[in-house]
User: Fold this.
Amino acid sequence: MLEKEIEKILTTEVKKLGGKAYKFISPGNNGVPDRIVVFPGKPPVFVELKTDKGALSSLQSVQIEKLRNLGQYVEVVKGVHGLIKFFTKYGYPHVGILLEGKYGRVKN
Assistant:
């Protein structure tokens, strides 16, 4: 599955939960995560999306580390199975179950 398809699933499911998945573009700061996800009543989460086999660039790793050093939540989500884990981790296991039913079991 392409990264843009994974991103579409993320934004769709976050919206269904009443949240926002803002596209994060920061001029002069290449390598920032793809999205800032805000669930109702929870702190924001920066999300870098990758395909199942995608890898972070060195610049992305640096930007993620900078955000984490500032005390921010940052998640690297790989494929649909990463989305299942993401939604479950942040308190929406029913979304994980829905995605698992549609796309298959979580790989460990």
